[in-house]
C-alpha cells in the first residue's frame, strides 16, 4: 500500500516537472524582454521610493519600455538622474530602448523608477509589483523586492 502511494507521488512530481519545462519554453518564445534583479530602495516617512531592474532583450529587434504602472503606488515614472556641474537633477524619460540581444540597467546614478503615493503600507522585505509595458505590446507584471537603505548598499 505504501509502495503504491510513493509511486503515485513520484509520477505526479515527474508530470509537474515536465509541464513546468514546457511552460518555461513557451514563455521564453513569447516574450522578447525579461527582467532580472528587480528591487526597490525604500525610504522612511512616505518618501518616494526608487525601483531598479535590468531589462534583457532576447529578440533581434530593439524594444522600448514605454509605460510603467503599479497597483501598489499611485505614481510610477521612469526618471533619469543627470548631473549639470555640481548639482544633480531628475528628468522624465518617455521611453527607454533595450537594444536587440542586449540589456539596459535601471540602476542607481542612472535611471530609476520613481514610486510615489504608496497605496498601502510598504516595508523592507515586502514584494511590490510593477507593470512594465513595452513597444512590442507585451506587459510584464514584475515582482520587485523592497530593501531598506542599509540593505541596498
Ligand atoms: Cu525621480
UniProtKB/TrEMBL annotation:
It comes from the Bacteria. Residues 1-24 form the signal peptide. InterPro entries: LpqE-like, Lxx211020-like, PCuAC_sf. Keywords: Signal. Gene3D superfamilies: PCu(A)C copper chaperone. This is Copper chaperone PCu(A)C.
